[in-house]
């Protein structure tokens, strides 16, 4: 069965729309998606880069979505564990999961600029088939 949903990228900037207006829009769109019978609403976490300005905490925003919807699945498109303490991350996930369906996705890599914020270096992701054949 094909799942249908919306993926909300926090690509809005202050010169285009205020943060308050953006958050109100996300909640309104999520309620509409829920009432229209879509299967999921998905948020991503990124800092700096080409997008990510208005959603440094997708779990907080998804908790607000959960409070205003009744049946839609909640998902993270990318949640960057390097930016979160494991205990706090687990606690925040419990706020979202409650009675709602929730899918937690962690990306295999992050943007170099985000990695540098944590003092690390981003590594190029090498597909498993290349790693196993020694070509990566």
Automatic annotation (TrEMBL):
One of its GO terms (molecular function) is oxidoreductase activity, acting on paired donors, with incorporation or reduction of molecular oxygen. Residues 5-93 form the Luciferase-like domain. This is Luciferase-like domain-containing protein. It holds the Pfam family Bac_luciferase. Signal peptide: none annotated. It comes from Streptomyces hawaiiensis.
């Amino acid at each position: 069965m094909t799942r249908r949903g919306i993926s909300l990228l926090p690509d809005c900037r202050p010169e285009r729309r205020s943060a308050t207006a953006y958050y109100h829009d996300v909640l309104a769109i999520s309620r509409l998606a829920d009432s229209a019978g879509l299967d999921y609403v998905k948020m991503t976490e990124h800092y700096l880069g080409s997008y990510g300005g208005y959603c440094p905490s997708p779990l907080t925003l998804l908790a607000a979505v959960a409070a205003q919807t009744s049946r839609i699945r909640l998902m993270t498109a990318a949640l960057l564990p390097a930016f979160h303490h494991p205990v706090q991350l687990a606690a925040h996930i419990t706020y979202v999961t409650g009675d709602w369906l929730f899918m937690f996705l962690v990306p295999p890599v992050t943007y170099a600029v985000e990695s540098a914020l944590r003092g690390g270096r981003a590594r190029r992701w090498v597909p498993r088939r290349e790693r196993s054949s020694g070509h990566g």
